[in-house]
Amino acid sequence: MKASRLRFGMNLWPPFLFAGIRVEEISPDYRYARVRMRLRPWNRNYFGTHFGGSLFAMTDPFWVLLLFNQLKGEHVVWDRAGEIEFVAPGRGTVHAEFRLTDEHVEQVLERTRGTEKALIWFDTDVVGQDGTVIARVKKQVYARRKRDKQLTHA
């Protein structure tokens, strides 16, 4: 699927749409994504700052999507674990960026030769308009090469 089409669809996806999460960019080569979320009455918490669940949600699918598309559908790729550290109250518009490097892809390819799986941790900061880190998110991604039977049906 073209990255522009995926971006369009994700912006209409109810979990993002109703939380006010906007996918600003997914690069055509699936190496980069940028997401933003404005503070709105429906995504703020009791204290008037960004709801933590929305901060986590805005980072949720991107490492898997970028990696899956880099591996050209030859691997099973899933989220395995995630954690978030809240650093500062989020006010105004917040952003998160995802940059998949050659080293990330090579690490997965090397670990998944044969039938082995790869478990890779990725880090993303959610930052405010002034560059202040609002939250640090870690996601562990599982990848394994598809079996021959899965490749013929993919």
Automatic annotation (TrEMBL):
This is Acyl-coenzyme A thioesterase PaaI, contains HGG motif. The lineage of its organism: Bacteria, Bacillati, Actinomycetota, Actinomycetes, Pseudonocardiales. It comes from the Bacteria. Pfam families: DUF4442 (PF14539). It comes from Lentzea jiangxiensis. InterPro entries: DUF4442 (IPR027961), HotDog_dom_sf (IPR029069). SUPFAM superfamilies: Thioesterase/thiol ester dehydrase-isomerase.
